[in-house]
Each structure stands twice: as structure tokens, then as C-alpha cells.
Write a structure and sequence with these properties.
- GO terms for molecular function: hydrolase activity; RNA 7-methylguanosine cap binding.
- It holds the Pfam family DcpS.
- Belongs to the HIT family.
- It comes from Xylaria multiplex.
- It is a single chain.
- The protein is an alpha+beta fold.
- It is 27% helix and 26% strand.
- The chain contains 8 helices and 14 strands.
- Strands 8-9-10-12-11-13 form a 6-stranded antiparallel β-sheet. A 3-stranded antiparallel β-sheet has the order 1-2-3, with no helix packed on it.
Length: 330
């Protein structure tokens, strides 16, 4: 055996000898953890990260059927989400206690779902008030009419996810000012540093932050305070200054909603510049606008990222760019 092979084997033999003592840190939404312990009675530090999924067909085709346990967290319309385990089955009915997979299922999915979840290039565009009025607003209307909001209406009207609702104003009591709060379907409901909740308004005339106007300011401030208060009461280990609230633009679906997340949640692409707009920034923007109560977010230009496979790019911004009429950032 060569010296190189011997060195590799000696190194590989160290990991099974690790004797755990305590957790030093856990970050990136629970995907990395730093452990302190000992190897052969000497101090050791073990950093564990979830490795990228292999893309080998033989692995992926066998994975779903070979999960050790699957626990449904909820389902609504075509969406369902689960916790699953790829490890050994534990004793004493604890097989779901240490699930290492968060699984989402969309079935039956549409071509738009496929495009959204496919790898694609990204563009940074500026949507002027004119582009919004003439191109994007009609695009939103078409999307709303395709039935993609059924799952949202199921939640609002109490047909689905009733047991998950953390806070809500009684349905219909507050008219246009009703709203509710519940866990986002992508959160595992356990990892506090990755907390992700969703505030959904009852009214259906607000499609996105573009519909917000100065007349909505008292309601927005009230809703912000209630969402924060409900979150810290439900999860007392969290303090107010450990939360951030934002809206997406463009949003994934056209019914106004607010994301409530822990500040430690990894700032991935959905929270980055060109996607997330802080709720405080929205309120401040509206406060500073010159004009009457009907003055709103539809009067400004907004820059954001769009995927090259999205209809927003292929149907709106790419043609505008090719025509030389798009307002693209310099």
C-alpha cells in the first residue's frame, strides 16, 4: 500500500472515533453544525454540512422510495410538504424525531412550476410606472385568473391549515383590514433560527406592494405590530429585534402577503437585493410621497431580478429590450 493510501485511511478512521461533547454553532438555516468533542482523548472540532445532492439518476430514482419515514406537515390544493428521514429507523417510535429531509411536493405541477424551479439565467430590470400599467398589471390579471390562488383562499376561508394559524382577525369582522399569520410551508416548524412565517391579508384587491397607497399607512403599521407581537408570543425565545418583515417584488403569487423571518435565516436569493423589499422601507416610502391618499407605490420605478425562463422576461422585458424601449438599470 502506498504512503498516500495509508495516509487517507488513517484520516478516514478519525471521524468514527469522534466523541461528541457539545454544539458550538449551527448556522445557514440548520444546514451546517459545528461540534466540539474528542478523538483519542484529544480535543477535536467536527464541522458537518449537508452535502450537495448527487445528480446521478440511479441515486435520485431510488431516493423517494427509500426514505425511512415520511411525516406530512400539511397539504393545500396541489401543494404538500413533509419531513423525512434517510437514516436508520430509531427505537421507541422516535423515527420522525430526527428527520433530515424537508420535502415539498407540487402535484399536479404546471409548466410555470417547472420553469420556476429550473436552473436559469437571471436579469436585473427596472419596471417603470408605465411598464407596470401597460404590461405588468395585465400580466398579473391573467395569472390571477388561472386558479393559482386557490390554496391562498383555502387558508383565508378556513378550509385548510386551520390548526397552523398563529393569529388572525376573525374572518370578515374587520372588512378590508383582516389578516392572518401562519408558518410558511418551507419552514420545518422546528429550527428557530430559520423561522419563516407568512402574513396573508383577507382582502383580494391588493395584488402586490404596487397596490399600496398612503391611505393604507395606518393599517400597515397596525398589521406590522400585530404580526411581530403574535410571533414573539408564539415563540418566546425570539425577541422583536430578531425579526425582519419584507414583501417580495415580484411576488410568487399575486395576493398581498408579508414574510416574517428570523434575522439569522440565511439571506438566499429570495431575500436579496432585487427581490425582497423591507416592510419598514415600504411604509417610509409611502410616508415620504407627495400627494393625496390615493398616491401609492404604482407611481415609482422598481428594479428587481427576473429569471430568463419566466414569462415576465420572455413576454415583457425581453421584447422591450429588443425594441430598445425597456427601462434597464445603468
Amino acid at each position: 500500500m502506498s504512503t498516500t493510501e495509508e495516509s487517507k485511511r488513517r484520516a478516514e478512521a478519525l471521524v468514527p472515533k469522534f466523541r461528541f461533547e457539545r454544539v458550538l454553532n449551527q448556522d445557514e438555516a440548520g444546514r451546517r453544525i459545528n461540534l466540539y468533542g474528542q478523538v483519542d482523548s484529544q480535543p477535536a472540532l467536527l464541522v458537518l454540512e449537508r452535502a450537495p445532492f448527487p445528480d446521478a439518476p440511479e441515486y435520485l430514482s431510488a431516493l423517494p422510495a427509500n426514505l425511512r419515514s415520511i411525516t406530512n406537515l400539511g397539504n393545500n390544493d396541489i401543494y404538500a410538504w413533509f419531513l423525512g428521514s434517510g437514516g436508520p429507523v430509531l427505537q421507541n417510535n422516535e423515527k420522525d424525531k430526527f428527520a433530515d429531509f424537508k420535502i415539498s411536493l407540487i402535484w399536479p405541477c404546471t409548466e410555470k412550476h417547472i420553469k420556476k424551479h429550473s436552473r436559469q439565467g437571471v436579469r436585473f430590470v427596472t419596471e417603470t410606472p408605465e411598464i407596470y400599467r401597460d404590461k405588468v398589471r395585465p400580466f398579473m390579471q391573467v395569472n390571477r385568473e388561472e386558479g393559482r390562488l386557490n390554496w391562498v383562499y383555502n387558508i383565508i376561508e378556513g378550509r385548510k391549515e386551520i390548526e397552523d394559524v398563529i393569529y388572525r382577525t376573525p374572518l370578515g369582522r374587520d372588512g378590508d383590514e383582516g389578516f392572518l399569520l401562519l408558518p410558511n410551508l418551507h419552514w420545518d416548524r422546528k429550527t428557530i433560527d430559520a423561522l419563516h412565517l407568512l402574513g396573508i391579508v383577507e382582502r383580494r384587491d391588493l395584488w402586490s406592494l404596487r397596490d399600496l397607497k398612503k391611505k393604507h399607512l395606518p393599517w400597515l403599521r397596525h398589521m406590522r405590530a400585530k404580526l411581530i407581537d403574535a410571533t414573539v408570543k408564539t415563540y418566546p425565545q425570539i425577541e422583536e429585534d430578531q425579526l425582519k418583515l419584507f414583501c417580495h417584488y415580484q411576488p410568487t403569487y399575486y395576493h398581498f402577503h408579508i414574510h416574517v423571518v428570523h434575522v439569522m435565516l440565511e439571506a438566499n436569493s429570495t431575500q436579496s437585493l432585487g427581490k425582497a423589499v423591507g416592510m419598514d422601507s415600504i411604509i417610509e416610502q409611502l410616508e415620504s410621497m407627495v400627494g393625496g391618499e390615493e398616491t401609492g407605490m404604482d407611481s415609482i420605478s422598481i428594479s428587481y431580478t427576473v429569471g430568463e425562463a419566466s414569462d415576465l422576461w420572455t413576454d415583457i422585458f425581453e421584447p422591450l429590450k429588443n425594441d430598445g424601449r425597456a427601462s434597464l438599470p445603468q
